What we know:
Oligomer: heterotrimer
Distance between the termini of chain A: 34 Å
Helix content of chain A: 55-70%
Structural class of chain A: mainly alpha
Number of helices of chain B: 19
Helix content of chain B: over 70%
Radius of gyration of chain B: 21 Å
Shape of chain A: globular
Amino acid sequence: MKITLDILQVLMLILGAPLVHGIIARLKARLQRRRGASIWRPYAELFKLLRKEELVPPTSSAVFRLAPIVLFGATVCAAAFVPVVHASALLGSRGDFFLFVYMLALGRFFLSLGALDGGSAFGGMGASREALVSSLAEAPFLLGLVAIAVLATRADIAGMVAWTLEQNIFNISAVHILAFTSLAMVILAETGRMPVDNPTTHLELTMIHEGMVLEYSGPSLALIEWASAIKLHAMLALLIALFFPWGMVSSVSGWGVVVALLLYCAKTAVLMILLSVIESAVAKLRMYLVPDFLGVASALSALAVIFTMWVKR
Amino acid sequence: MLLLLPLAIPVFGAGLILLFHNPRAATRLALLLAGVEIAVLGTVVWQVHTHGELHQGRYLRADGLSAFFLMGIAIVSGLVLVYASGYLRHTGEGRFSSPRWFYALVFLFLFTMISVCVSANLGLLWIMMEGTTLASALLVGFYNTEGAVEAGWKYLIVCTVGIAFALFGTIVLYLAAVKAGMNPASALDWVSLMNAAPRIALDPHLVKLAFVFVIVGYGTKIGFVPMHSWLPDAHAEAPTPISALLSAVLLNCAMYALMRYDAIVSRSVGPAFPHVLLLIFGVMSMVVAGLLILVQRNLKRLMAYSSIEHMGIIAIGLGLGGPLGLFGALLHTFNHSIAKSLLFFSAGNIRHNTGTLRMDEIQGISRTLPQTTAALLVGGLAIVGLPPFSLFISEFAILSEAFAQARYLVVILFLAMLSVVFGGFAFHFFRMLCGEPDRRPENSKLIPSEYIAMGMAALCVLFFGVRIPHVFGRLLQEAIAVLQ
Amino acid sequence: MGLVGIATEKILSSFSVFLFLTILLLAVARRISSSVLLFGLQSAIIAAEVLATAFQEKLPEIYIVGALVFVIKVVAIPRAFFLLTKRLKTVRDVKASTTPTQSVFIVAAIIYLSYAAVHSYGGAVHVPDDPLAAAISLILTGAFLMVSRKKALMQMLGLLVLENGIFLAALITTFGMPLVIEIGIFFDILMGLLLMGIFTFRISDTFEHLDVSKLRRLRG
């Protein structure tokens, strides 16, 4: 029964990802007083791309064709670490949060390789910028998770979520606030959202992620787009699970699962609204200011780790 | 009732002066009010001398120490206002630059300083101390020149930060008192704290911490060396009568506040800790200010650094303690104010007659401004501590105490710095006095007000060097008794 | 105890965390208006804490102090700042001498130092660690802001943050000094700010800028 639930969690993360993308795009459109496309449009786009013919640059090698597959696989693996409805996940107890972070990093690495392999100038530029952002974002990502792990004295994500479930929601601790802020900033950077990267841009100078995928088409592009949607969904789910997991079922029962699912949808909705507001409200940072942004995130997460020393647990 | 008068007169006087737009009427009213105020202060001092202390309500008290400082304030402010009445004929008109604003602000400033000296409550003392900064900031920036505005801003910011630290120290002392069981309503009252001092010593760390913050905070207003950055600018850019008030009266008031705290802390955790701090700050101030005097180029900045040096001397006297140390320190506060006022008055005259304060541009004033030169010489010889002037007596007392306590390092540094300062002053002054003057100034004669002010100051400085009047001596002894 | 009681408890036990967040955000703020908003937020948190203390310790005087804090520091002073920035027509940038990353690290170091200080020396005073460390961090951050921000308005703000810290320290250790003294202190701060405002007008008039680092005429 647990296994079924875990598999269903992963499937939900994977299949629900385009919906999350669509809802965020629609919310942003509404905030900007446009009508906006339907929330199901990303699904239509994925179907369209899967049926199209794939064009490959003649100068590319196997890496170019391999990259989207590795990216998708790694991201799905990472999504399998995240608990959604109950405090465990498919791969939850098989690896700790380091593995989660580096699964995502593996996918990103291969995407950069594929972009470089494609041979276009935009690919190279996107890859170099992506390298900068991801290397700077790695520190706060890890430190934020380390802070929570130190408090929970467990290293696997499912264990950390289980520990958080046992805490009292009203004991606001400095560690959690700092880690939350820092992880939120990291999510903005890692998933290529404003103010670090503009997901809707078509101007070369402002691209990071879009620059890297410029050469891809057909099913490969579908896989890449899907993978980035899954990454966003998984990281949002991670944020919810680590900081607001109350409502998850502890023992598997029919009604409990339904309630947990509804609560999860509600929390995701709140986060999506927040994300849309932030994306619509801030302007994109110029490239030389992105290290400052991530530096602030690093300082906050470092402070969170330092604070764990004084928390009386 | 009597204690309220010296506080009410300046406040109402300030408001009254603002009503008079005619400069001459404003000046006459100001002088009249000054006379009344001095008379009232004299009465207060006499009452305290004959009857012991005076108090009014819970927050005002005048004892021997207050009386001594009030007397100093009265005399110096009288001299300064007399001088200012003549000085202001040179000021231009501006939005806040008319004589009535000047006198009104000066009276407000005097009000705050007198309140410092008669507050019984350490909280009120702090409030009024911050009030002195606020009241004098506009006076420092009185001329709207670049230098004045910069000096005024720096003064305001640095002193407010310093006073904020003093507030923290006051709070810590209050905390120590309340923890030791004192009634919160009287835990900031100086006399109650003095009586309960041994009890507060049960928590020595808090009391020591409080004193550290207080000496840093009030030391900023006194001008001790790491915190002195505002002093040369403010004293140099302000109008001359204000520079005299700042150097001669305000620094003394800040020192008064520090003395009050030193008394409590010495009685509580023993004199060793506070006195070591006072000696350190005093010696640092003397050394740094003395060395910087050698490289000054502006006459008023030179005098400002000399003020820092003399505050260092007073701190050394206070830090040595003992009968002679306290005697020297208290006497020095008075002597220094008179001599420094005299020097500033001369500087003001020089500025108006030669148009500059840069010492390398002033030459040969012994021929063009003979009377000012005489005043400058008297002031200069007095300020470096030569006999037969009064500062010699107080510095000699402090030195004797240092010898008696076998603090030879202090003695050596003290004497060395005195020599350095003497050399510096001699160099700067002789460069100004000798040589060919550039031009003959139009009116080199002093007008009566300046004559009176400078003459009285010079006589005072000479007279006190020869013999201290009996009444004055008694007041001094009572002040010392309060602190022990 | 009712809802108010629970709210009071939670405020008292966790407000210091939010104060840390405000000073960290102050370190990275790049415009004067955001800094002033953060200061207003900070003062609101402190006012809430004052009122919570008044409720818990049952000291009616402190209600007045809390109301004063709210009116003066949350409402009046930020509005005065906004008026001042509009009248002065100055550039809105904060002109920090350290990059945001460096500032955040310095403030983080300040927070760490305050905790270290409280742990070593705070035993003398029997108060919970977090609020005292928050007060000390406020004082040190105020000093840091005054030193590293080169706009005159930011120096005033740094001074205000410093005063906030001292006020908080006084409150949590002694539950406030006699009321008359507190009112006097508030009055002093207000007058001080008024004078600083006058001076900023004069600076911008005589110098035509508000950059304090360029006030370097008097030296030596």
